[in-house]
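Morning - 1AE inputs below, output right after.
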Amino acid sequence: MGNYCVATYRSFDDKADFHKKAQSIAVGLTVGSWTELPEAQKAEMEKHLGIVKQVNVHESDVPGGRYADIRIAYPDINFSRDIPALLVTIFGKLSMDGKIKLLDIDFSEDFLAAFPGPKFGLQGIRDLLGVHDRPLLMSIFKSVVGHDLDNLREQFYKQALGGVDLIKDDEILFENPLTPIEKRVEVCMDAARKASEQTGQKLLYAVNLTGPTSQLASQALKAINAGANALLFNVLSYGYDVLHELSSNPDITVPIAAHPALAGALYPSQHYGIAAPLLLGKLMRVAGADLSLFPSPYGSVVMPKEENLAVREALLDPSLPVKASVPVPSAGIHPGIVPLIWKDFGLDVVVNAGGGIHGHPMGTAAGGQAFRQAIEAAMNNVPLEDKAKQHPELEQAIALWGIKK
Ligand code: 1AE
């Protein structure tokens, strides 16, 4: 058998003959028609024909409950070595054709060879920060739209003083006259240096890379020349191929954090769209995201735990021949959630919070410190209530947000 990429789907239908349906997808998305072809043409077209690998039917008496998991192999010869071509082949028109969800893709070795993956990945990010023995902590800039550079500098400094390892722009901060990207980088990196004199810590600032696609690479270089040491990128609004272009550009020498904005339009339905472990896990990693943000099972935007851990697995899975991307479960995270993150994600995670840092009653720096205290407690199996007795920052955080069990 030549090189094939294999797609796994879940198709819902109370009556369908799923074997026939699978065959019709395999033919329809490749050669178009098969049985009508003259024998001589079949021999010529066979290398382009999709192959049904598996159909597992799950019967159910509950209306709407019957489904089948279908695996179809698509010949690499049919598509160029880019994610748009693959996605359009396996799930382009099909995504609009009834209740069907794309669950997974097994890439062929040949297809994967076109993707260098993340430049830094988990190990590279840890090396840049010099932190190898604890979960990392990221703070999200909040209230930045309409603010000027002095305000941003002040906000950045307070976040950095809290002992965070990374600070990311809010994803809704675009190119604007008050805080253009290179000026933003200059003032924030300056604040990072000042904070570092006090904390002794290194810090990555993921500045939001925005604007028309044709100008993204030059914007990234502008930011890097101004001192940027990381980028944030809204991958799904641009497409995976744009991330791939940026991450494989040799001049873009800093890690890229992938923001999941728009993902809610694609993964949450049981019946439609693309499963989260593929959307925010495997595809982000193959396209070159060093860090991937996604909702957690515990915060304000909730993803079911099993699905969440499958996203984590897809980002770290050692069987994929590219570097691991760092999992960043996000949204509504506060210090009282940290023991759950530690239990489910362990060491290799970024704890990421916006409101859970800035909303701290003692201020932003105390917000970061409360997280660091919570991380230390969780790692040493110390209940947060006990740790809080010696740390007013943690004590006030759990008084405000509680401890999630
Ligand atoms: C899932 C992405 C989370 C994000 O980008 C963000 O801004 C979260 O903010 P908080 O922590 O919920 O305030």
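Note: Residues 233 and 258 are 5 Å apart (CA to CA).

O.
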